[in-house]
Amino acid sequence: MIADRQKNSVVWRIIHRLGSLQLALSLMATIAIACAIATVAESEFSAKVAQTYIYKAPWFIVWLGVLCINLLSVTLTRWPWQRKHTGFIITHYGLITVLIGATIGLHAGFEGNVILHTEKPPVRKITVNRSIIQLESPKDTGLYVMTYDAAVTPPSEKRPRVFPVPMTNLQIVATGFSDNLLRTTDLVPATSGGAGVKLRLTSARMEQKVELPLLLEEEESVEEDFFELATISLAKKLPAAIPTLPSETQMIFAHYAPFVQSAQGQSAVNATLSEDGTRLSLSAGDATSVTYLRSEIMGQPIVAGASIVTVEEYWPDFEMKEGRPRTKSPLPNNPAALVRISTAENATAVSSKPQLVLAVVGDTLQFQLMRDGKTYASGVGTPGKAFALGWADWQAEVVQFFPQATKVTTTAPGPALEDGAEGIPGFRARLESAGGPQGKPQWVQSGDVTTLTDGVNVVRIGYGLELRPVPFSIRLKNFEVPRYEGTETPSNWIATVEFQDAMTGATKEGTARMNHPASFPGTLFANFTGINYKFSQAEWNPRDLNETTLQVLYDPGWFLKWFGSLCVCVGIAIMFYLKPKTS
Fold first, then answer.
1. CA angle 227–231–237, rounded 5-degree value
2. CA 130 to CA 111: how far, in whole Å?
């Protein structure tokens, strides 16, 4: 019968050729080789390279489509189906379903992240792992988006990438790539404007070097935050120097009497530490004792009567090693804390951060160091000469100083990155017009907008990760980091988020914690079909517990992959374990 219909029907002849075993072996061998190459590319380069050249490449999708046709055709070659074909047919249709679901998930789904903050408004866009460029056409000021990842297909002078500017005869030509672009801001002397100072702050212990330019223009002062640990400001004049009032230090223990060091007798403040080191109690004179969670007041000035108390250091298992305090283990076997107590004339007005204030006095640059609202050091900032800040081992050096200056920002490739390190990628590009002049090449940095010009026309280009809108808003209501008892080690991360549907306005609350994602819409149907957005805890900011980063996963092909896999298992079970009885 099979031979007869192949001989008499062109359709059946085509079906049998498409369903041949030779074609199936060729297709699967090619896909296996391609997946092996993709695995090597992913380990040697990145997942983006594997997806661009293999998994998301048009030829691979066509190859999967031909494999689906082969699987469908091979089931039709058994027509008319009999009971013994049941497992065979279910298995092959299950494979087709898995391939369709995988293709849908790869192209319609996405993986990204969203940064949420309790004090900021809800967000409706997810940062997905896909790089794009945005062009602003000078013809209609429209914003045009193109998919492009310079790290995957890096341009060069020999193989430039050309992006036409819509509605014009202009084009942007990319001729270089760097995976570690650095932006530097320098000061140059000017005939007008305010004073300019560029500082270099270094820490040998932390192996860090930070350069900070400060330009004073119309404001009375300009201030920069230094890792949320201190403030650095450039002012028109230094504040009145207030000498530091007498202070004392207390080394308090949970199980032993405190050790007090004071220049003018012990203060009236009494500090005690709980047995597990988690709580600190303060009392001043006849005042009632107040208890704080020690982890919440570390480094923060606390008013106690007419004094200011700051917990500067903590050791859960205190010991002295080579004349220096340290902790033997993270367990609270011998909790100890270093407490500094100073007298304040106006305790409520004391700043919680140390300060470095600079000002131009005549032709010199003078500085003043302040802590707890009091001046503890001052001097003249001489270019090329470092001075200690009193913030651990940090030192400051004046790199540039001009009584009148302006800022000049440049972007250029930095040193080669070490294995595993990540930098800011970007590409070098210029603006050209047909038969016209060429603009000066500039580096287009990821996450930034750059203006290109050929001397006549101006085009703004942005490069970075895509922001994909979602049909609902996300707001962080609360973020908690529970700790293991007696330690500072997090035991969990708990983010309580509120989702609001953009169409109906309905709200839903979800909780994302370790190994337990939140989801939206989160209904039974959405969970069953996979048309669901899943939010998992990804990162957190130890310095700001009002902020968290959630990973977002959306896979509309999940149900097809799950159902297809189930069909494959059922089909194989039928073929091997439910064979029809033979007489």
1. 155
2. 9
Q: 3-class SS at 252?
A: strand
Cα 17 to Cα 12, 13, 24, 73, 524, distances in angstroms:
9, 6, 10, 8, 43
The C-alpha atoms of residue 365 and residue 383 are separated, in whole angstroms, by 9
- The burial of 60, by beta-carbon neighbours within 10 Å (0-12 exposed, 13-18 middle, 19 or more buried), is given as buried
Query: Which burial class, exposed, middle or buried, applies to 369 when counting CB atoms under 10 A from its CB (0-12, 13-18, 19+)?
Result: buried
At residue 172 the predicted structure's pLDDT band, cuts being 50, 70 and 90, is very high
List the end-to-end C-alpha distance of the chain, in Å, as a whole number. 24
Q: 210, 212, 211, 209: which is closest to 223 by C-alpha?
A: 212
In sequence order, the 6+-apart residues with CB closer than 8 A to the CB of 250 are 258, 259, 260, 261, 271, 338, 339, 340, 341
Q: Which residue in this structure is represented by tokens 């988006």?
A: 145
pLDDT at 242: 60
Q: What's the rounded Cα separation, in Å, for the pair 377 and 192? A: 32
- Alpha-carbon span 320 to 148, nearest angstrom: 57
Beta bridge partners, 123, equal 474
Strand (E) or helix (H) holding 41: helix 21-44
Query: Is the confidence at residue 351, as pLDDT, over 60?
Result: no
Mean pLDDT of 527-547: 86
**Joined tokens for residue 464:** 């970075």
Radius of gyration of the chain (CA): 33
